[in-house]
Amino acid sequence: MNYLPCVEIDPPHRDADASVIWLHGLGASGHDFEPIVPELRLPDSLAVRFVFPHAPQIPVTVNGGMVMPAWYDITALDLERKLDEGQLLNSAQRTVDLVEREMARGIDSTRILVAGFSQGGAVAWHAALTFAKPLAGLMALSTYFPTAHITVPSDANRDLPVHIFHGTGDQVVPEVLGQRAAQQLREWGYQPEYSNYAMGHEVCLQEVRDIAAFLSRCLDDRAD
């Protein structure tokens, strides 16, 4: 299997029994969210492995065709976002491959959470909701849900815990897109958590605290 290259951070004092697969945004890398791990201050009892994959280098139309790390090409930055759907779905499959690799390492699917920021979040939406086995949760940070029209949630993840995080001043991915994603989930019968912050297209300290709380709620039922 040709897995995406990843930055991996294992728990310091024991073998991992849970995993978080966290996708970065356009032009970034798996190192982008690496510094957030110690700031989460998760208890050692959670024993979480963080997996931060690197997106492939591809030309991005809205950036003049410049080659950069991207999960898919974006051809227009209007509110509806024109993008290469096939590339997004391929990135979602490669994310699923990483989930399955964690399972092969001995992590139960119910102990694996998928997260993504911006472009990475768009991929995470599809990968998590359609995964055939139950997951621990989904975090969607400063992102949107461009494949909602073709996404069919799996029966296994009909009750997936979802938390959406967004900045009220986000000029890159306007908050209305995060609100639309939340509304779509509600129409499907989900009960997503939604948090917004007085910030732009970024992450703030209160958000980090809320992410830590969500991770703890999703992963605190470890069976010894």
Automatic annotation (TrEMBL):
Keywords: Hydrolase. One of its GO terms (molecular function) is hydrolase activity. Residues 6-218 form the Phospholipase/carboxylesterase/thioesterase domain. InterPro entries: AB_hydrolase_fold (IPR029058), LYPA1-2/EST-like (IPR050565), PLipase/COase/thioEstase (IPR003140). Belongs to the AB hydrolase superfamily. AB hydrolase 2 family. This is Phospholipase/carboxylesterase. It comes from Chromatocurvus halotolerans.
